[in-house]
């Protein structure tokens, strides 16, 4: 499988997981328990459009997530992830890092 196909699959999976949060009925509960989440993104490209669209439309806030999007290189995002400085890394290795950390 080519890296491009793996990247697209990982991005689709990531967006699907974030979309599920928008379908949950716990809006009132989420409002009272706002969680700060830091997301490292390696590029500003069309591939990350769903993340930015959801952020600017307030979907994360509605679900009790105070999202901070941080633009950084993939290497810096990986290092920050393992040091616990960010909770998520959106990129080709983001899902693999999450699995390794848990």
Could you explain the architecture of this structure?
By secondary structure, the chain is α/β, with parallel strands linked by helices. It has one domain: D-Maltodextrin-Binding Protein, domain 2 (3-Layer(aba) Sandwich), CATH 3.40.190. It is 56% helix and 17% strand. The chain has a 3-stranded parallel beta sheet. The radius of gyration is 14 Å and the shape is globular. The two termini are 25 Å apart.
Judged by helices, strands and strand pairing, the structural class is alpha/beta
Specify the number of helices. Answer: 6
Shape: globular
Helix content: 55-70%
Annotated CATH topology: D-Maltodextrin-Binding Protein, domain 2
List the helices and strands and how they pair.
Blueprint lengths: L2 H21 L3 H6 L2 E7 L7 H8 L2 H4 L2 E7 L2 H10 L4 E3 L3 H8 L1
Parallel strand pairs: 1-2, 1-3
List keywords for this structure.
single chain, 102 residues, alpha/beta, D-Maltodextrin-Binding Protein, domain 2, 3-stranded parallel β-sheet, 6 helices
Can you give me a brief rundown of this structure?
The protein has helices at residues 3-23, 27-32, 49-56, 59-62, 74-83, 94-101; strands at 35-41, 65-71, 88-90.
């Amino acid at each position: 499988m080519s890296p491009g196909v793996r990247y697209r699959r990982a991005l689709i999976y990531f967006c699907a997981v974030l979309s599920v949060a928008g379908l949950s009925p716990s809006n009132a509960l989420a409002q009272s328990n706002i969680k700060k989440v830091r997301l490292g993104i390696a590029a500003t490209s069309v591939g990350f459009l769903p993340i930015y669209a959801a952020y600017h439309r307030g979907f994360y806030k509605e679900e009790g997530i105070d999202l901070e999007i941080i633009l950084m290189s993939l290497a810096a995002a990986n290092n920050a992830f393992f040091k616990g400085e960010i909770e998520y890394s959106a990129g080709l290795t983001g899902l693999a890092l999450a699995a390794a950390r848990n």
